[in-house]
Write a structure and sequence with these properties.
Length: 533
């Protein structure tokens, strides 16, 4: 159920490692879920931005078996597998992106915060530039506040605010984290579970940021695996020539070639149950209105848990339905703007395009949360290389007035806001498009504090496997979603009914970061994480 990264990974893994025939039911007509690539007049939009980077060697190799690394990078970019470092390809083997489409590009990562009409490194570095922009007194307050958090940390960490203050100090939290985080989620940080920080920020801290700042000046080997680097601090990543959707379209093609089935335009409407066993799935063809039943032995769900519970044709305990109905999701709007140029430049004297992939908009007088510059993800995302193609990102709920604005109103808002804060000149806008994506971010508030009861109830259904971001109501990146699917397939192959190893993926910051040389079996790797958690 679902043709996003988790669903398609499960399908391909089943074909490659078992005799199970997968049937993928997808409500939309495209592949990849939120990891799709939207094509507007030859200009491609990456919804939310997807860096292809993982601490899991298994995921990195899986990706590169689908789309090999580009030729220009193949001679000097290296990646570590199983404790050893080797070249991915010789220069003669890698595809040339100028002539071939099935290729992974090696990209430099650059993200900055736009605050007080100034750029700050993200994550915050302690460079001279940062200190000058912050000013002496604010820097002093940040330093003293951080020392206080080290000496007198909050002991009962129950909220995301507590997590941030303990990790960075209150002053830095108020300066760079609070405003943006509350734009994303629409509620105060004090009302969000601390688990969100553990999921998304993991081991990042001031001390690790400082260590990384000094370490990068002494690096001699180019190693795209970046195993010793926190995920938030990586400097390079892989990226499909035509965006993330290209990866999942290619995976879907391989699933079909190997005998799997993918049926689009099919909305799951019911799960037929026999006790604690799913027997079949009912789905309706959205084009014809015709219903169809799909019987099976194993069922993978990537659909939102709230919708999964609603579709179960059995009596649901009242407390389980209450928790399910109380789960919240944050929705997402991207406004694509095609421009002659940006008003801000990398070097004012040269007028060159800034090199950022993402810009986090911290300005309090606009509601735009983030900005992507698609030219810098891949030049092949832009139809005319003489233009600048950007995505302005907004976070909201489907019930908000923002979500209900017309496309024209939404595009006008994005133009006005970026003009107001000096990033663009409205007169330079050539074209625009708007795309809405519901249930993009599973929220760590609402009834989430009782999620354990819901998980326990669903885990009792032995042949139902929850995988992926919405499938597990867990803020997974696509590599985490893939690992949950891979682990579920392994459980089926081994006859394992306990699902704790699936939930262990990305549960703690130990996720896939142990660097022992012996990684022959991913099950052992995940078992170690489960034990640690």
């Amino acid at each position: 159920m679902g043709a996003g990264p988790a669903g398609l990974t499960a399908a391909l893994q089943l074909l490659n490692t078992t005799d199970v025939l997968p049937i993928v039911l997808e409500k939309s007509t495209y592949m990849g879920g939120i990891s799709r690539t939207l094509n507007y007049k030859g200009n491609r939009i990456d919804i939310g931005g997807h860096r292809f980077f993982s601490k899991s060697d298994r995921v990195m190799e899986w990706w590169l078996n689908i789309l090999p690394i580009e030729r220009n990078a193949a001679s000097d970019e290296k990646i570590a597998y199983h404790g050893a470092t080797r070249n991915l390809h010789s220069p003669q083997q890698g595809p040339d992106p100028q002539w071939e489409d099935r290729v992974m590009l090696v990209r430099n990562r650059k993200s900055r915060i736009y605050f007080l009409s100034k750029f700050f490194d993200y994550p915050i570095s302690l460079s001279k530039d940062t200190l000058v922009k912050l000013g002496f007194w604010r820097t002093l307050r940040i330093g003293l506040s951080y020392l206080k958090s080290v000496v007198f940390p909050i002991k009962d960490v129950t909220s995301l605010e507590h997590f941030f203050v303990n990790r960075f100090g209150k002053e830095l939290y108020l300066t760079f984290f609070k405003e943006y985080t509350e734009k994303v989620w629409g509620v105060p940080c004090s009302e969000i579970s601390a688990e969100w920080g553990a999921q998304r920020i993991k081991g990042l801290s001031i001390t690790k940021t400082i260590a990384h700042y000094f370490r990068k000046y002494f690096k001699t080997e180019k190693d795209i695996s970046q195993k010793s680097t926190e995920t938030s601090l990586i400097e390079k990543f892989l990226y499909p020539k035509y965006g993330p959707g290209q990866m999942w379209e290619e995976v879907a093609r391989q699933v079909l070639l190997k005998g799997g089935k993918i049926i689009t335009g099919m909305e799951v409407t019911g799960l037929e149950m026999d006790g604690d066993t799913v027997t079949s799935v009912a789905a309706v063809n959205l084009e014809t209105g015709r219903s169809e039943n799909f019987a099976g032995d194993h069922f993978f769900s990537t659909m939102p848990i709230k919708e999964l519970i609603q579709s179960m044709r059995r009596e649901i305990p009242p407390q389980i339905r209450e928790i399910s109905n109380g789960l919240l999701y944050r929705d997402f709007i991207t406004v694509g703007l095609l421009l002659k140029k940006l008003a801000i430049t990398e070097d004012n004297s040269s007028g060159s395009l800034i090199t950022d992939n993402w810009i986090y908009i911290q300005e309090p007088n606009v509601i735009a949360g983030r900005l992507q510059i698609f030219n810098n993800w891949s030049s092949y995302l832009v139809a005319d290389p003489g233009t600048v193609w950007i995505g302005v990102e907004y976070f909201c709920y489907e019930t908000d007035e923002l979500w209900k604005l017309s496309d024209e109103e939404m595009a006008d808002l994005a133009k006005r806001e970026l003009h107001r804060i000096g990033i663009i000149d409205e007169r330079d806008v050539l074209d625009s498009t708007v795309h809405r994506m519901a249930k993009t971010y599973p929220a760590y508030f609402g009834t989430y504090s009782r999620f354990g009861e819901l998980r326990e109830y669903l885990d009792r259904i032995e042949n139902l496997f929850l995988v992926g971001r919405n499938g597990m109501h867990k803020y997974n990146n696509q590599d985490h979603s893939m690992l949950t699917a891979m682990t579920a397939v392994e459980n089926i192959a081994q006859g394992q009914t306990d699902k704790s190893n699936i939930w262990a993926v990305n549960t703690e910051m130990e996720y896939q970061e142990t660097r022992q040389a012996d990684r022959d079996t991913p099950v052992k790797e995940l078992a170690q994480v489960a034990k640690a958690g």
